[in-house]
Amino acid sequence: MAAEKDKKQTPDKLLTGEQEELLDLYLHKLDFYMEELKAADAVQVEIETQHLKKILHK
Questions:
Q1: What is the share, in percent, of the chain residues with pLDDT greater than 90?
Q2: pTM summary value
Q3: Which of 15, 43, 47, 58 is the most exposed place for a label (fewest CB within 10 A)?
Q4: CB–CB of 16/27 below 8 Å?
């Protein structure tokens, strides 16, 4: 009975509890992925900076 209420969509609730949990997990994974991309970008910039410094000091 409670499962049926959870599956029904009411005007004030668009997602079921399970859908909200899945969305939350997806958003956390997306945040983690974006942080990893930022870190990788920072490493790439540092590598390129060191390479350019090496070229300029020759």
A1: 72
A2: 0.63
A3: 58
A4: no
